[in-house]
Specification:
119 residues, seven-stranded mixed β-sheet
Amino acid sequence: QGQLIESGGGLVQAGGSLRLSCAASGRTFNLYRMAWFRQAPGKEREFVGSITWNTGRAFYDDSVKGRFTISRDTSKNTWYLQMSSLKPEDTAVYYCAGDVKTGGPYTYWGQGTQVTVSS
């Protein structure tokens, strides 16, 4: 069974930066797309951005466009979320997700990592 293991969350001041990592481990599976989601207290989980494994093309929600960057390292089976110019409203539990399909719900999910941005 494949697993997604996240790391890199923490506490940062507004305007600061953090990088989250998501590593695919366990049995080898060919992911087609990977994504980041987040869930703030009392709110539903929301899409942050995604990246296609083969092309590296990334898409972002408007709320993070220009501040967040998603990338991947194919040699390490890992993708990243580089967050800059962080705002208190970015505070949430961040989840990585992956899937072998080109669309539909994501099958594989990380355990989540807390990101807290202080004002």
